[in-house]
């Protein structure tokens, strides 16, 4: 294996070009060696724009390249399972975009394929690798806000005018719960170190957008006094806050999931009527994510977030979608 892991990018999605590829290129242990598209012109254009050495006109050709160590998959959600399994069978380690799959069963199959072929599989929730979440968990565990009584979070944006967007194709895994509702769900599980016991979700399904959920609001119950209340949407103003409410104080994170620029990643601790700003370093969460995976591959160490975690997150997403469609409370 080369000094730096060589990554192949399976597709030219916006998230790859805008955030993940630059993040990998800025990381310490990785380099982007190739990009593939079913349209060779698109692959060559992306390679030229982002200084990537190789462009492939098919995904299969990239997987056949023995020089590629890791595959990043930013394809539409319905293609995650197929290409994760094919990459695993080709002996490639994998970083796959969130949500990992269309449902829990698919995610479990993908995790099994990675284990069977002896490769690492990670879900691309980049925010979890930023050290501010370690700091937040430290404050929680040391009792800075007392016992947690609730978590409130949201992730919304307005892209409703782009009617042809893949997010609005129901059969492709479109909708706000899949696309961004998965963030508050994963964050609550991370912060509480628990799995939910029940969910109740109300959603607005838009016929203008393929019948997908364009807005959803939910209650995620945990085994104890704390619960997550969240909303997510693709037809409303942008926001991505997180609030953790305790018996003795509150932690506020104004920009909880978007990779923070200098200063915007800071959060606030409110206790005794005083609001203290907690400064965090300006670090690229996409780079941190890539380096964590690379370190595990190079040293054979466990991932911080194993594929089983993604399977459990998909279980909650499944329940949220069922609850929204059937207008029922779903127990887990």
UniProtKB/TrEMBL annotation:
Pfam families: GFO_IDH_MocA, GFO_IDH_MocA_C3. Gene3D superfamilies: Dihydrodipicolinate Reductase, domain 2, NAD(P)-binding Rossmann-like Domain. InterPro entries: Gfo/Idh/MocA-like_OxRdtase_N (IPR000683), Gfo/Idh/MocA_domain (IPR050984), GFO_IDH_MocA-like_dom (IPR055170), NAD(P)-bd_dom_sf (IPR036291). Transmembrane segments: none annotated. Coiled coil: none annotated. One of its GO terms (molecular function) is nucleotide binding. Keywords: Oxidoreductase. Residues 134-252 form the GFO/IDH/MocA-like oxidoreductase domain. The keyword Oxidoreductase applies. Signal peptide: none annotated. Residues 5-122 form the Gfo/Idh/MocA-like oxidoreductase N-terminal domain. Belongs to the Gfo/Idh/MocA family. This is Deoxyfructose oxidoreductase.
């Amino acid at each position: 294996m080369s000094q730096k892991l060589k990554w192949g990018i399976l597709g030219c999605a916006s998230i790859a070009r805008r955030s993940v590829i630059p993040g990998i290129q800025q990381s310490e242990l990785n380099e982007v060696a190739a990009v593939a598209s079913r349209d060779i012109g698109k692959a060559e254009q992306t390679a030229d724009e982002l200084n990537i050495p190789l462009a492939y006109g098919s995904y299969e050709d990239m997987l056949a390249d023995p020089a590629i160590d890791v595959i990043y998959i930013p394809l539409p959600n319905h293609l995650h399972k197929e290409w994760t399994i094919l990459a695993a069978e080709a002996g490639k380690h994998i970083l796959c975009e969130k949500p990992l799959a269309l449902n829990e069963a698919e995610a479990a199959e993908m995790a099994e394929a990675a284990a069977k072929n002896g490769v690492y599989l990670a879900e691309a929730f980049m925010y979890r690798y930023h050290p501010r979440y370690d700091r937040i968990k430290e404050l929680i565990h040391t009792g800075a806000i007392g016992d947690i009584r609730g978590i409130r979070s949201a992730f919304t944006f307005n892209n409703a005018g782009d009617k042809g967007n893949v997010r609005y194709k129901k059969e492709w895994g479109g909708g706000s719960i899949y696309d961004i509702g998965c963030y508050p769900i994963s964050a609550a599980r991370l912060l509480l170190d628990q799995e939910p016991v029940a969910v109740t979700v109300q959603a607005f399904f838009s016929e203008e957008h393929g019948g997908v959920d364009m807005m959803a609001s939910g209650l995620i119950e945990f085994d104890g006094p704390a619960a997550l209340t969240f909303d997510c949407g693709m037809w409303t103003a942008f926001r991505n806050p997180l609030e953790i409410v305790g018996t003795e104080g509150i932690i506020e994170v104004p920009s909880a999931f978007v990779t923070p620029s200098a200063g915007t990643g800071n959060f606030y601790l409110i206790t005794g009527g005083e609001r203290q700003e907690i400064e965090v370093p300006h670090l690229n969460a996409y780079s941190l994510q890539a380096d964590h995976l690379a370190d595990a591959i190079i040293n054979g160490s466990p991932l911080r977030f194993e594929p089983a975690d993604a399977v459990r997150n998909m279980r909650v997403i499944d329940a949220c979608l069922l609850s929204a469609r059937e207008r029922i409370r779903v127990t887990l």
